[in-house]
Structure formats: structure tokens, C-alpha cells
Design brief:
The complex is a heterodimer of chains A (457) and B (460). By secondary structure, chain A is α+β, with helices and mostly antiparallel strands. In chain A, 44% of the residues lie in helices and 17% in strands. In chain A, strands 1-2-6-3-5-4 form a six-stranded mixed sheet, sandwiched between helices. The longest helix of chain A is centred in the last third of the chain and has 20 residues. Chain B has 460 residues and is of the alpha+beta class. Chain B has 16 helices and eleven strands. In chain B, the strands form two sheets. In chain B, strands 1-2-6-3-5-4 form a six-stranded mixed sheet, with helices on both faces. Classes of the chains: A alpha+beta (457), B alpha+beta (460). At the A-B interface, helix 3, strand 5, helix 5, helix 11 and strand 10 of A face helix 1, helix 3, strand 5, helix 4 and helix 5 of B.
Chain lengths: 457, 460
């Protein structure tokens, strides 16, 4: 290794002018996290208001404990159907009125169901902030859920379902989560079409009534703040019913080697998902684990991406990430690779995992990743009002103290090479990984066979 | 229909909202270096970050005729090595200084940008200048990126249901001039045939300071930035950039219908596209407002008709410029509306319903309130794009206005131009440009063909 480095320098100086080194830049300008104004309404609703930016826009997002996690096992996507129906009007506003009122504020009403939370809100011009808060409260508290609209919305969701399930990445994602979280909402990604068609307005109303309440909601407001927001929140949400906050125990997740193959005849690429449950954000080792992920496959210059993209040209956009579902977490490497090199791609991915488990990374490589993550942290907290809200919500929803944010950069920079190796060794155990391959089995069966069982340890 | 319309009008009457008084002026400092490099500086102290964006006036429209996809393949080669930065070193340099980067080929430009902590502005400027001076790449680098780009086309088009719908296919069907109508992602055969000397020649032809604009947005000192820009870019020589070929599209006088079969798609889809008025004309701004009024958001007229009233689709998407926005292009452009529907609804039914809506704005002047709402919507979008990705959205507009109009300060006058649009001009624009004869309808058939049916990509 040392010899190669020397040879390179010699060669470079022998044939051309010595290379110029990049300028270091100046001293860093200080970065201070925005200071949020946090308060709780008597009904238990949490509120966070935080200033951001100079452009007169304001993001308002309510996170309600009404995501897929709270769906009955036989009502997958009932939260999505509820989200759609909530846009169909309130006791006093028609859906057309909702749409045109918010458009006049320079925004759109957005209601989306995620794995844990339903988010409802939008981005509007700053001077419309208090009026938008009042409108959002009306939607959350007084949704009409008109029976006459449910058939059209189920047809729309059925179409969405068919379209989503035609993408190889969706199939891989679904199977991966099914295997990791059996008998749990996190493993139920899609309903069957026939189940979806059978959902009733009574089921939607039961889901809405059971989950939409003050104590199950955290409202975030970020942007160039106009006056009157606090008062608008208090008067609009003050009389909402309290309900009861949920505190779900996260599923452990399955750690066992299995190979899942989904046949897609004629596919030009194989979609690979390789991963397993790992330490969640509440662990003190989560930040070192995140650094490990960025170094291994979670960044452009990472080892796996350098290998299978920049050296081999097997793929365009490989990425590893730590996904979270509530307070559970999993690591996954996802890549769409040319069919003919499905086996070789898996070989290189496991080679890079094994290499990191056996040998701590060099200090310069780690230092580079640490600086990257420190810079990315600033970007993540400043890129937009919504990005700032997402950061605050991710910390709050994990039950972490806000000091997690203020000490993040320091903790990233305290990670040692040995920590990276240790976490790769304990968390990224190949014999416990689930492998999903969506591709043309007639062309890849032989290539993937060697990975069906984990090699002996 | 009449009843519904009355309710909608009434809802408008009850809305007490005046036009928002919120406003924002973008700081713009603009100058040109002696070698022709256009420079735009726009400070913003929201966060200690800085965007460095360089735009070259070489888009895929004007790539070589026998090398479709070349402008994009070339964009990949700009990350493969320059005089002082070897393969992967550019990417590592940005990443290890705490930043993110990307590059994109578009109709009329190719861009490269970094978002970094603001104290690393000099590092970014040095690196961009280094690769503007020349590439140090090998055949192995090219072979590698041919593999990567081939995989990019596979993951986004060939192995994807609705791959390229409608953004890649519609321009090919709706346009007639080769520059606007070829496969800009590239035929895999053309991508694989590219040679190293072609890459070097392309660089020499288009990658020169007098064919570029550099935008810096974020938390920096303009005096310091100017000195650094002069130091790193000032000595890079000009090049003779070839004159722009004739990009004009002839006036379309007959409706075109094209059928495309997608074996991977589970549901049919439909897109329709109209040639839009030339940039920066009064009709162009009117078209921008028509897009908002007709197809942007839940309140839009087509959404209300096709989604809410008829239930033909769950959502529709529409844009002037499927690969950006109505401001970041130069040549001829399309306004495209697209949606996925069920086999039980025919394309003809959908087009009839859409025509009914368009007739409403073409047959009489619209209500001023509807026009005001459209201005509000477009202004909101402009504001959002100005902060997008730490200021990259702002850099994008500034660089395009500099490159195409030599006037980045336009960023602050766009809204004034939109406000000049009257209900009468809007109606006139709808009549002339939203004619059926000015459009192409793309019928996207789902699933494997029945025996004897149209084959993949077939054209009627």
C-alpha cells in the first residue's frame, strides 16, 4: 500500500509539473442551531415555532400519531385513504374552498401518511401563516370524511397501488420489510387490491376518531415568522380533544440470512437490497454507526460506490442507508445493477463489508467522512424550513433530548477508526443479512446461488 | 356542471384575502471577466454555507448528431479527472470539506455545483477553475462512465414502468427540428460508441469561460469572492464557440397523436403537450399563468375537472419544461400535462373533458381573482426555488438569466411582468397556443401487446 502511494507520486512528478494542492479556505464561520420556541397546549399538543431564512415563506406541519403503525392488520393503507378523505372538506369548508383558500395563501394543503406519522400542512406566504394555522386546525379537528367520495378515492389508491408495485424498487423494498418485520405494521407495506376495495367509510371514521387528537400531535412552524402565530395556534387548537399519546415498543426485527428472489423476466437490471436490523437512534453507538454507514456505502465517495460504480461501472446509483421505522432501525445497501453482473456486484458489496469488519479504516479516510457529515449536518438544518422541521421532528420522535442536535458534530468527530470496525463487526454480520433480488431469474440464478447461504464464520 | 361552477364562483366571492403584501428582493451583483466569464454574486447570511454553480451553454439539444446522449455522457466525464485532481478526487475534495455536489445536462445548459460550508468557497472556485482549464482522462475512465451512464438509462427508462414518460418521449414526438426532437438520454449504441478524442474535442469547443456563467450564492464576502474569481478564472483563455444552430420549431397546424406501448406499465397513461410562446414575450408570461390556473395544485381547473369531478385520475402533473421550470431553458419548449388512468376510461374522454376546461379560458376573459391567484402561486414557487437546496435554486435562475439574457437581475422583475398580464391577453394566448392543432397527444398503452398489436415504441 505504502509502496503504491510512493510510486504514484514519483510517476506524477516524473511526467508533469507537480500538482497544485487545493486551497484550504478560510476559518469556518460559526454555525448556531436555530433556537425553537417550544410549548404545550392544555390538551397535550406539542408546538415548536422556529425562525428560518429571509424569504417570506413559512412551513407549517402537524405530525400526528396516525401513520401506518396504527392501522389494523387487515386495513393496510386505511391511513392513506383517511389522508385523502381529509382533503375532501370540513364541517364548514368544501374541498374546493379548502383548495382555493390555501392557493390564495401561496400554498397547497398536503396530507400524507407515513409509516409512523400522518403529516398535514403546507408552505404558505408568511403573512398568511396565522390564517393557514386556523385552516389546518379545521381540517384536523373537523374533517367531514364524506361517504360520497370514498369510491373515487379507493379507485385512485388502487391505481397508485398497481403503479407502485410495478417498480422493481418497490417490490424489493416490500419484500425486505416483510422479512425484517413479520407480523408487524412495518412489514405490511401494501394491501391487496381486493382488501383496499372493501374498506368502508365507517373504518375510515374509526381510524380518524381514534388517532386524531391533541396529545397525539406535534405542530411545527418554521420560516420567516409573522406575528400572531402563537395566538393562532392557541385559539385554533385549544379546544381540540386531548386523546392519548401512544408509546409503541419497537419490533426487534429478524436477523437471519435469507435469499429472496422475485422474478422479473427480461429485466435489464437486478435490483438488490442487502441488509438487516441495526442499532437505532436511541443507542449511544448510533452516531458512530452513521459514520460507518457513510464511509461504507452512504456517500458518493464511499467504498461500495467507488467500487461498483466508479471502478467497475456495474451500476448508476448504489446507496447504503440506515432506515428508521419508529424507534427501530435497519441498514440496507440498495443498488440496481446490470443483469449480467448481478453476482459480481454482490461479491464486491460483501467484499467491502468484510474488509471493514476485518480492518479499521485509515485516519485520513475517516477524517474525510467526519468532515463530510459535519458539513452535511449544517446543510440538513438549514437547507429549507421543511428540512429544519424534519431534523427537529426526527429527534423529538425518537424521544431524544434536543442536545442530541447540539452535540452531534462533536460526537461525529470523536469517532475513532476502531469504533468503525467494531460496529461493522457487531452490526453488519453477513450471516444475518436478508438479501432481496428482483431480476430475471433465468439469467441470474447461477450468479446468485453462492450467496444463498452465508459462508461459514 | 353549471351548478358546480356557480358554487365555485361564490367561494371566490367569499374569499376576503387581498393579494399578499409579502415581498423579497434578491441581491444581484453582475459582471463579466475579460475572458468572457459571466459572474453573478448573491449574498445571503441565512446559514454559513455557499453554493458555487457553473453553467456551460451546452445542452443536449446541440450535441453531435451521431452521438445522442453525448452532452450527458460528457457531464459524467467532468468528474473523471483534471490537471490537479485525479479520478474521484474532485468528489472526495467536496465531500471531505463537508459539501455535496452534482452535475446535470439539460436542454440548453450543463451545470456543475457544490454546496459547501462558506469558508470553503475558495476551494470550490479553485476546483471548478481547474476543470475548466482542461481534462486529464483516460479511455478506462470513459469505458467506466459508459457503463455508469448505460446503467442510468436502464434504471430510469429501460427497466422502469413509465420510463421516460413523458419527459423523454414527448419532446421527440412533439418536435420536428432534430435539435429538439432527438433522444437526448442517448441511444445505448451511441453512448457505447463514444471515443476519448471526441470527449476532448467537445471540451475544447464548449467548455470555455466565454461560454459559461458562474453564480455564487450564500454567506460570503463579495469583495473576497471577486478577488478569488479573478485569481482562479481570470487567466483561462477564451475559445471560439460555434454559432448556435437554428433551433426554431415550425408552427404546428395539425394535431398529432402518438401511441407508445409500455410492457412494464400496469395502467395506461396520457400526456398532451403544446408548443409555448417564445421566451420573455407577454404571451410567455400569460402561458406561465395559464399553467398555474389550469394545472398546478388542487385548486387548478384541470385538477378540479379530471380528478375531482370526473374521477379519471388521482393526480395530474404539468409543467413548462419537464426538466426544470419555465425560466431555465432557452430554445423552443412545450407545456406538457400528464396523468395515469384506468383502462375503463378512453383517451378520447379525457381529451374531451380537458378541452371543455381549456375552452372556458379561451372563450372569455377569466375572472381577475383567478388571475391574481395564479400570480400568487407562481410567486410562491419562485420564493421556494430561491432557497431550494441551500440556495442552489437561486443560483440556477441567476445563471440561466445571465447565460440566456445577459440579465440576471431579471430574477427581481419576473413578477412585474406576470402582473402585466390582463384577462384579455390570457384569453388571446389560450386561443392561439392551446389550439388542438398546436398539440401532440401521447397515448401510453399499458402491458404486453396482444399478438399483432403495435410494438414497443411504435408510432401511429
Amino acid at each position: 500500500m505504502k509502496r503504491i502511494v510512493l510510486a504514484t507520486i514519483f510517476l506524477a512528478s516524473g511526467i508533469a509539473a507537480p500538482k497544485e494542492l487545493p486551497p484550504e479556505g478560510s476559518a469556518p464561520r460559526p454555525f448556531h442551531l436555530a433556537k425553537p420556541d417550544d410549548f404545550v397546549l392544555p390538551n397535550g399538543m406539542k408546538v415548536t415555532i422556529v425562525p428560518y431564512g429571509v424569504v417570506p415563506r413559512i412551513a407549517v406541519r402537524a405530525y400526528v400519531q396516525a401513520g401506518a403503525l396504527y392501522e389494523p392488520a387487515d386495513q393496510v393503507w386505511i391511513s392513506k385513504l383517511t389522508a385523502k378523505l381529509m382533503k375532501e372538506g370540513t364541517a364548514t369548508r368544501s374541498s374546493e374552498q379548502l383548495a382555493s383558500e390555501v392557493a390564495d395563501m401561496g400554498g397547497q394543503l398536503e396530507i400524507d401518511s407515513g409509516s409512523d406519522f400522518m403529516t398535514a400542512g403546507g408552505v404558505v406566504l408568511s403573512d398568511a401563516g396565522p390564517r393557514f394555522v386556523a385552516l389546518l386546525a379545521d381540517v384536523l379537528e373537523n374533517a367531514a370524511l364524506p361517504a360520497a367520495r370514498i369510491d373515487r378515492l379507493k379507485t385512485d389508491l388502487g391505481r397508485d397501488l398497481a403503479v407502485e408495485k410495478s417498480a422493481p424498487q418497490s417490490l424489493a423494498d416490500e419484500r425486505f420489510l416483510q422479512v425484517l418485520y413479520p407480523n408487524h405494521a412495518y412489514g405490511r407495506v401494501y394491501p391487496s387490491d381486493s382488501a383496499l376495495r372493501g374498506y368502508t367509510i365507517e373504518q375510515v371514521r374509526a381510524f380518524y376518531n381514534g388517532n386524531f387528537a391533541g396529545a397525539r400531535t406535534h405542530l411545527y412552524i418554521a420560516g420567516k415568522l409573522d406575528s400572531g402565530l402563537r395566538e393562532a395556534v392557541r385559539s385554533s387548537f385549544g379546544n381540540w380533544k386531548a386523546g392519548t399519546a401512544s408509546n409503541e415498543t419497537p419490533p426487534a426485527g429478524v436477523k437471519a440470512r435469507s435469499m429472496q428472489v422475485i422474478d422479473r423476466p427480461g429485466a435489464a437490471q437486478s435490483t438488490l437490497y442487502i441488509g438487516l436490523p441495526v442499532l437505532s437512534p436511541s443507542s449511544p453507538d448510533y452516531i458512530p454507526e452513521s459514520v460507518m454507514n457513510a464511509l461504507l456505502g452512504g456517500s458518493f465517495a464511499s467504498r461500495i460506490t467507488s467500487n461498483i460504480r466508479e471502478q467497475k461501472g456495474y451500476t448508476y446509483s448504489p446507496i447504503s442507508m440506515i432506515g428508521t421505522r419508529g424507534r427501530a432501525a435497519y441498514w440496507v445497501e440498495a443498488a440496481d445493477v446490470t443483469t449480467a453482473v448481478t453476482g459480481p456486484s454482490m461479491k464486491e458489496i460483501f467484499y467491502e463489508i468484510d474488509r471493514l469488519r476485518k480492518e479499521a479504516p485509515g485516519s485520513p479516510e475517516l477524517r474525510g467522512i467526519q468532515t463530510y457529515m459535519s458539513g452535511l449536518f449544517v446543510l440538513r438544518n438549514t437547507m429549507s424550513a421543511d428540512a429544519l422541521i424534519a431534523q427537529l421532528h426526527s429527534v423529538d420522535s425518537q424521544g431524544l433530548d434536543r442536545s442530541w442536535l447540539t452535540s452531534y458534530v462533536q460526537k461525529v468527530n470523536e469517532v475513532k477508526p476502531a469504533d468503525i470496525q467494531r460496529l461493522a463487526e457487531t452490526e453488519l454480520v453477513p450471516s444475518k443479512m436478508t438479501i432481496v433480488v428482483v431480476g430475471d431469474t433465468s439469467k441470474i440464478a447461477d450468479q446468485i446461488k453462492p450467496y444463498q447461504q452465508a459462508p461459514a464464520q | 356542471m353549471l351548478k358546480l361552477f356557480l358554487i365555485a364562483v361564490c367561494a371566490l366571492c367569499l374569499t376576503t384575502t387581498a393579494i399578499s403584501a409579502d415581498s423579497f428582493t434578491v441581491p444581484v451583483e453582475y459582471y463579466t471577466l475579460p475572458n468572457g466569464l459571466k459572474v453573478i454574486l448573491s449574498p445571503d447570511s441565512t446559514a454559513p454555507t455557499v453554493v458555487t454553480a457553473i453553467y456551460y451553454r451546452i445542452g443536449f439539444r446541440i450535441e453531435p448528431r451521431d452521438r445522442t446522449g453525448f452532452a450527458h455522457l460528457f457531464e459524467h466525464m467532468m468528474f473523471q479527472g483534471s490537471q490537479n485532481l485525479g479520478k474521484m478526487e474532485f468528489i472526495r475534495l467536496v465531500q471531505q470539506n463537508g459539501g455535496v455536489l452534482n452535475g446535470s445536462a439539460r436542454f440548453d445548459f450543463t451545470n456543475y455545483f457544490e454546496v459547501l460550508p462558506s469558508n470553503k468557497l475558495e476551494t470550490a472556485l479553485w476546483a471548478e477553475a481547474d476543470r475548466m482549464k482542461g481534462l486529464a482522462i483516460t479511455t478506462a475512465n470513459l469505458t467506466n462512465q459508459q457503463g455508469v451512464v448505460g446503467n442510468e438509462v436502464k434504471v430510469n427508462v429501460l427497466n422502469q414502468p413509465y420510463g421516460g414518460f413523458p419527459w423523454l418521449w414527448m419532446p421527440q414526438y412533439a418536435n420536428t427540428n432534430w435539435y429538439n426532437a432527438h433522444n437526448f438520454y442517448g441511444d445505448l449504441k451511441d453512448i457505447e460508441a463514444a471515443k476519448l478524442d471526441e470527449v476532448q474535442a467537445f471540451f475544447k469547443t464548449y467548455y470555455a469561460p466565454n461560454n459559461a456563467a458562474l453564480a455564487v450564492v450564500g454567506d460570503f464576502d463579495p469583495h473576497e469572492a471577486k478577488a478569488m474569481i479573478a485569481k482562479y478564472f481570470g487567466a483561462i483563455p477564451k475559445a471560439d464557440v460555434p454559432a448556435m444552430p437554428d433551433l426554431d420549431e415550425p408552427r404546428q397546424d395539425k394535431e398529432k397523436t402518438v401511441t407508445h406501448r409500455d410492457p412494464l406499465a400496469p395502467r395506461p397513461a396520457l400526456a398532451f403537450a403544446y408548443h409555448v410562446p417564445p421566451r420573455n414575450t407577454p404571451e410567455y408570461y400569460a402561458m406561465g399563468l395559464l399553467n398555474e390556473m389550469l394545472a398546478q395544485g388542487d385548486d387548478s381547473l384541470l385538477y378540479q375537472e379530471l380528478v375531482k369531478k370526473r374521477g379519471y385520475t388521482g393526480d395530474l402533473s404539468a409543467s413548462i419544461n419537464e426538466l426544470g421550470n419555465m425560466f431555465d431553458y432557452y430554445g423552443p419548449m412545450l407545456w406538457t400535462v400528464s396523468l395515469v388512468h384506468d383502462a375503463s376510461v378512453s383517451p378520447r374522454d379525457i381529451m374531451n373533458a380537458a378541452d371543455g376546461v381549456i375552452e372556458r379560458v379561451a372563450s372569455q376573459p377569466v375572472d381577475q381573482k383567478l388571475l391574481d391567484r395564479s400570480v400568487t402561486k407562481i410567486r410562491a414557487e419562485l420564493y421556494d426555488s430561491m432557497t431550494q437546496l441551500g440556495g442552489f435554486g437561486r443560483a440556477n435562475l441567476l445563471a440561466c438569466f445571465a447565460l440566456f439574457d445577459d440579465d440576471p437581475a431579471r430574477i427581481n422583475t419576473v413578477e412585474t411582468e406576470l402582473r402585466k398580464v390582463t384577462p384579455q391577453l390570457l384569453q388571446k394566448t389560450a386561443r392561439e397556443y392551446l389550439r388542438p392543432e398546436n398539440r401532440t397527444v401521447l397515448i401510453w398503452e399499458a402491458g404486453a401487446p396482444a399478438s399483432g398489436a403495435v410494438k414497443s415504441g411504435g408510432q401511429q
